[in-house]
Amino acid sequence: MSLDAEPMEAVVNLDERHWLPRHCRGDRSAFAELMDAYQSAVYGYLVRCGVPSASRDDVFQEIFVKIHLAAASYQPSRPLRPWLFTIAANNVRNHLRDESRRRGSGSVDVDSRPSSDHGPQTLAEIDETVAWLEQALPRLPLEQREVLLLGSVAGLRLQDIATVLEIPLNTVKTLTRRARMGLAKALAEHASGTTGGAS
Structure pTM? Predict the structure, then answer.
């Protein structure tokens, strides 16, 4: 079964590598295909990085405008996802830095709600987990949060994260381990009823 899945994935990856060159040649449907494929992942990344809901749509739009403007620099011989998330990560980093300067400190505003298809107990558990993550993620240092979210939300491999953030692969591994340890510590403190930060 996995043999059938791999060729299809390769076809999808080859196809997506041609969206931006087609877009540069004037094919209007190519950019729409790219947006359809990546808008959920990019928006989810914004949510989990702590971009406030009041500015999230603007940041989302800025990212895709920058992708449009940089389309000619994309090389189809390279995977699209890391290239695209390099732009997204840089834009989020700049926005959060500017927001922090304006407000003096950052706060996470995650307003994504679970589907109502779940039972009330499951919804309560999901709400509690989301609330806990809302508090724990911003306590991680930005570098750890970025690495964790690029892997878990954007679905990037460790090597791709290193490329996106322009840091060595071993640094990505270290930051990922520290982020997971920080969240595990915060979860243990949460479960035992004590308060503390993830770090």
Answer: 0.64
